[in-house]
Amino acid sequence: MGIDRRDFIKIAGLSTLLGLGGKSALELLRPGQVEAAMEAEPQALKANRWCMVVDMRKLDEQTAKKCREACHKIHNVPDFRNPVDPKLQVSDEEFVRWQVKWIWTDSYDHAFPGETAPHMEEMIEHLQFLLLCNHCDNPPCVRVCPTKATFRREDGIVMMDMHRCIGCRFCMAGCPFGARSFNWRDPRPFIKEENPQYPTREIGVVEKCTFCAERLAKGQMPACVEASQGALSFGDLGDAKSQVRELLRTNFAIRRKPYLGTNPQVYYIV
Amino acid sequence: MLENAFTGSKRYYGLLAALLALAGIGAIFYARQFTFGLGITGMGRDVSWGFYVAQFTYLVGVAASAMMVVLPYYLHDYKAFGRVTILGEFLAVAAVTMCLLFIVVDMGRPDRVLNVIKYATPHSILFWDMIVLNVYLLLNIVIGWNILECERNSAAPPHWVKILIYISIPWAPSIHTVTAFLYAGLPGRGYWLTAVLAPRFLSSAFCSGPALLILLCLLVRKFSKFDPGKEQIQTLAKIVTYAVLINVFLFLCEIFTVYYSQIPDHLLHFQYLFYGLEGKGRMIPIMWFSIIGMSAAALLMVHPEVRKNENTLAWVCGLIILTTYLDKGLGLMTGGFVPNPFEKVIEYWPTMPEALITLGIWALGFFILTVLYKVAISIKEEVRA
Amino acid sequence: MEDNQIRNEFGNFAEKPVVPKKLYDFKYIGLGLLIFFALVLSPILPNLGKTVAAPDPKLDTPAIQKLAEKERKCVMPTDYMRANHMQMLVDWREAVVRSKGAGGGPVDDRMFVNPEGKKYLASLSNTCMECHSNKSQFCDQCHNYVAVTPNCWGCHLDREQKVTKAETK
């Protein structure tokens, strides 16, 4: 043979790379067999742009608590204050660090920092606003995710793919609203009542409110909306006749940090 | 060439053993972190990036600084730097390796890290960061190794190495610019949302990297027969001087914009770092030490007598390394996340496992550095013999 | 050039070293070989002579028993499921979470339509595990045998209800 060892190794290496690369390229480009066999449920709710309107005039602390509990219960959100095994108590500082919350309440000056005044309407100062992911129309978290584990659906929902998340927490740094939580440790020991119909999460992935996409697909309203007894309205901004459009047309509503340009889609009527 | 790494004095082996031991301890704690989760660190829902990403940011700067010795030699024919380019390149290799390791330990799901390649997302800066860092690592390994081998065989380097070198020169500041862009484009983080972040990163890199290189050159001269050269160290010192002056200047520019405009979104972070907020001020002594130390170092470096005396030079370089490390590491991270988007102050401090894993990775990086330097120095000694 | 002289890389002549032929450093080589074979054979030697029971997946869960005899079919035929359930679950995941379905809508497509036209909700916990509610007696049987650890169960709840003899019939 007229080939020397160096050239042989070069050619062998290149062929291996091409072979492996070719195989994976084929696999990546191969169309899924099952894709063609999927369809939406007939009663699934569709929208051009989902939006939530929180009517703070109707939301009291009890109702807010019900909304939070409804959401956290059906989504198996861990409660680090209440471990299943009482020996697993976490300290206060650890609770602040490890807490996972998809929906929670906070006061006006924390929900709308920078928009406070020295003398404000007394009612506002005592209100506990219900806060959650705003499912922004121009979400910075989606911009920064390196794997598209968080992505914006066509109907406006900013979705979380817990299967793909690598836990880099870039989205948490990018969210201006502090809406995202990370699984700093295994959540299962802290879920008192597991809902078997929804998965839990593993360590190392980010999670947040998904506007109950799995309930919308079945034709149901998000859990917090159902539990809110009318204080929360959820609908399609693209539908001129929807309830949310009506509410926004007839009431003054504010959003969190609109000047950042993320276009949040949770409105608050105060 | 690698055989040079296997022959050495007892001191050399002792150093390698100590570094490996530290790396081993780090590995044990990482195994714990892998099973328990990142909750073993001091990070939390509010400060979601901490010590690991701080080290990563600092080390990207050190890696980028290799350009500071390569550029004068290859673009401007500054022949004197021919002795130290390999030291700069090998320092870059060790630094980038440490960066990549810090990213891996910081990930929640390191088993899924290849998702970044499988689901490539060009609009994410982290994707580009991964690419530029890995390419830079490859560039420096290939260039360094080839140039060293050519020097040992007294042959001229092949033409393609020159092309790679010309690519690596703009690539170096670009790795650090991409790292700065990780922070500088996030709308909710006022401390980082400044156009001057990338220039600050670069100026900090170009003073801390060559400062570290000066210290390494002095160590090389002390512990081996190879002398990097007085002139080379003096030129590096001049580079450090200008870079640290620019670094302090850019910091003062930030201070002006933030304090003159009085916008809370930006001001509150500086307030927390330097004066404390809501009674919490863990970072105050660190930040003041960092900025006063850096300014003092800058003013000292301006004086030729300080630079010419290699003793004082070493001390001031050490001060620069420490102050830039504090400013760009913990200062950058904590400043960005505190106060949080709700204007609440939740502080951060690394835990012991976090610190030991960090130390383990530093030890691994210095292990690689020691091995590579041993190879380079042995060959330089051999050639000059 | 004479037989016992060679030219080395620096161009000098040198005496070719005369070395007797024998196996040098045998104690290190032998030790290395011993360690190597010990490591390589370590999974095999302790298990010589033992047999592992063949997988015995149990299909007689209450949910399956409730169905009429001829309706006891999985979403796809058994052969297809045996070969492809892993890929099918991945495809379901992509379609449900990431709206890759060809259903045409902007929202996720969660209904799987099998070749017979029957529709099922594409969900591991809610569809598969509804019928196969005995993970340790069904899924784990084959998975343990071939030493496969699918990582679904870290998140998806398996709704385990073991089948006992009393529950069948």
> Looking at the chains present, what oligomeric state does this protein adopt?
heterotrimer
Percentage of residues in helical conformation of chain A: 25-40%
Uncertain residue ranges of chain C: 165-169
How many individual helices of chain C? 5
- Uncertain ranges of chain A: none
Helix content of chain C: 25-40%
Order of helices and strands of chain A: HEEHHEHHEHEEHEEHHEHEE
Gyration radius of chain C (Cα, Å) is: 30 Å
- The fraction of residues in strands of chain A falls at 5-15%
Task: Characterise the protein shown here.
The complex is a heterotrimer of chains A (270), B (385) and C (169). Chain A has two domains: 32 residues; 231 residues, Alpha-Beta Plaits, CATH 3.30.70.20. Chain A has ten helices and eleven strands. Chain A has a four-stranded mixed beta sheet. Chain A has a two-stranded antiparallel ribbon with strand order 3-4. Chain A is globular and about 90 Å long. The mean pLDDT of chain A is 91. Chain B has 385 residues and is an all-alpha fold. Chain B has one domain: Formate dehydrogenase/DMSO reductase fold (Up-down Bundle). In chain B, helix 2 runs antiparallel to helix 7 and helix 4 packs antiparallel against helix 6. Chain B is globular, with a radius of gyration of 21 Å. The model of chain B has no long low-confidence stretch (mean pLDDT 95). Chain C folds into two domains: 43 residues, no CATH class; 106 residues, no CATH class. Chain C is elongated. In chain C, the strands form two sheets. Chain C has a two-stranded antiparallel ribbon. Chain C is 34% helix and 7% strand. The C terminus of chain C is likely disordered. Chain C contains five helices and four strands; from the N terminus they run ββαααββαα. Chains in contact: A-B, A-C. Strand 1 of chain A pairs antiparallel with strand 3 of chain C.
